[in-house]
Amino acid sequence: MPGLSAPKLLLSNNILNEGNAGSIASAFHSTRHIQWAEAIFIPRFGASSLYRFAALCPLDPDQQLRLALKVPRLAFDFFAVLQPPSTTFHSEPALCQLHLDNSPGALLRIPVNLVKMLTQDKNVAWFDEQPAEGQISPAARRLLETYSSVPSDKVIDHVVKIRDRAWEIFPYPCIGQFRFLDMSLNQFAEYKDIVQRLQAGQKLLDMACCFGQEVRQLVADGAPSENIYGCDLRQEYINLGYELFLDSDSLKTKFFTADIFDASSALTELKGQLNMVYAGSFFHLFGYEDQVRVSKIVASLLLPEKGSTIFGRQVGAVNADEQDHTTNLTGRMFRHNVQSIKEMWKDIGNDLGVSFVVDARLLELQQGHLRFHTSDTKRIWFVIRRE
């Protein structure tokens, strides 16, 4: 919302919503504009939750970052001011702390680098202006050319156009590096069996589906689209998926949005209904304790019978650890190795009174992913079956 002119005074008691964000923004410098994003609200007691906030940007990381935070479940809105420390990418401390007005004891913890991310700054390690050779895999190109009928010489332009719009929604690393076109489910040894199970009427959920690229690959390979569900936190990405794959008139997959921690979300309608869940780059968005919580929720979606399966892949490590993570909105990431993921699911099974068998393996990251990961970072692939 450029071109605003107004006093420098920070307003403090206005109700904020998307409808009046423009008038509230007029209280700030003309070089700034409203940018919607998400943050983590962490009460002194209780679990963290995702909330929406508006950040006024662009901002220098050493300047004050004024946030207007809307907490829909608490029935009040307030402004707060963050003073981030002088720091560079991957420097310590990895988290800023934001004390919230009108909420004694409450704390907002956001990664230092999120300050930069909120500006959609493209001068970051995880943004590529154009896909390098191999970044759009042969499988992804084939899918776009055959399933979506995108002309071969138009594929790059088509993908970049969609990616740039997605970056403006929120600058996730997987968006900046075109990793939303990494097809992973078809790399599992069980992939043919997955397609056959769907053809036989079984149901699969693509958790955190982003554009629904895995869904389209399954459909292109013969799976009935009506037997597949896709869930993401952002409706905008689901909408962009239809534009990327040009199938809004033909795809019968049911897509929906949900917060995994919201007990009243649309996910609850699938509880105990699914034969399979695919969770690509999902569980690693959380620290260990929240991974356990999230894993139990995902497990509850499975049919309570032998053979119900969770497939997935995510960031792992040779030595399992939990660390501050500057591009996770929770600010934390637990990186599993084979032993730790098996132990976690053994504990989950004990808590739920269910037995799970875990098959997992660590593989090397693709070279491009190493630009902002440490040398011991790997990718862990896993299949979790209910006994």
Automatic annotation (TrEMBL):
<protein>
    <recommendedName>
        <fullName>Methyltransferase domain-containing protein</fullName>
    </recommendedName>
</protein>
<dbReference type="InterPro" id="IPR051654">
    <property type="entry name" value="Meroterpenoid_MTases"/>
</dbReference>
<dbReference type="InterPro" id="IPR029063">
    <property type="entry name" value="SAM-dependent_MTases_sf"/>
</dbReference>
<comment type="pathway">
    <text>Secondary metabolite biosynthesis.</text>
</comment>
<keyword id="KW-0808">Transferase</keyword>
<dbReference type="GO" id="GO:0016740">
    <property type="term" value="F:transferase activity"/>
</dbReference>
<keyword id="KW-0949">S-adenosyl-L-methionine</keyword>
<comment type="similarity">
    <text>Belongs to the class I-like SAM-binding methyltransferase superfamily.</text>
</comment>
